[in-house]
Amino acid sequence: MKPCRGAVAGAIVLLAVLQFLASPPARAEYGDVLINKRSEKEGMRPVVFPHWFHRIRFRCKVCHNELGFKMRAGGNDVLMVDIIEGKFCGMCHNGQIAWSPENCDLCHSGKPGLQTKIFGSHQTGGPGRW
Amino acid sequence: MLGVAVTSGNVFSQERSWLPLNKDKVHDPMSPALRLLQQPGEALSKLPADTAGNQVRWVEALESGAIDPRTNVFPETKVNVLDLDNWLNTSGSMPVVKFPHRQHTLWLDCANCHEHLFKSKAGANKLSMLQILNGEQCGVCHGAVSFPLTECSRCHNTTFEEYRREYLRAQEAKK
Predict the structure, then answer these.
(1) Which CATH number fits domain A33-118: 3.10.20.310, 3.40.50.150, 3.90.550.10, 3.90.10.10?
(2) In this complex, do A55 and B53 lie within 8 Å of one another by their Cβ atoms?
(3) Nearest Cβ partner of A59 from B107, B134, B150?
(4) What is the pLDDT of residues A55-93, one digit of tens each?
(5) Does this complex have an ipTM over 0.90?
(6) Which chain B positions have a beta carbon within 8 Å of A111's beta carbon?
(7) Which residue is closest to A103 within chain B, CA to CA?
(8) Which among B55, B53, B58 is positioned nearest to B69, based on CA atoms?
(9) N or C, where is chain A less crowded by C-beta within 10 Å?
């Protein structure tokens, strides 16, 4: 019994070491938010919001203070009609600062079937609650 | 020779890399947007290197001028920046936390944290790593969008001795 157990333990250790050495597959980019509160129900792909892209161009305070986005993934009830009226994303996505709302696919580019969440990166799985 | 072997063969050395959008398992590889959207690697590889999160030192990127993100979209918005350090965790077993308002307010407004996440009065907040790791308090951002909680020593950045010296110096200056 004992050598057998040793072999199993050895194999587990070996697998753990191999997994550690192989670079772990990244999922998304750190801070990417997948929003699927309504999209798929309405027949669209879910939305991918990349924080990295936006923070190169805008400080957090623009969206999270001026535009009123709550700092919780899924915590904002944003309807397309709001965006078209120039609220939330529509403050910039109006064809002047950034692409206008009729470019549906550019935001609605997420993989179908995914739930609303914020993604971690190559090291962490994202926050325990969002 | 040895130097070359150590630097080139080190399995722990981290070459920065970013997954292309069609492989990130979040974007739909069939989406027509993938031909148009910017790839993370294209933008992030040019910014100051980090080992965690987006693998970018975001504050350094801002301060060095590598990026110049807008502070406001409404002309009437008052842009607040506060240059004030606070000492936190001054009696714990981990090093003391020197919290810099300046770096935080370069990105954020006062109202993003005060008063709903943190009271403005020094000492009035009961911080807990358990809550932070669960996405509350500092964890609203750290672990989600700003550097993750694997980087203990970036917040727990000051020895107790250094803290005591700086605290005494500040008390002297007040007199």
Answers:
(1) 3.90.10.10
(2) no
(3) B107
(4) 999 999 999 999 999 999 989 999 999 999 999 999 999
(5) no
(6) 25-29
(7) B33
(8) B58
(9) N
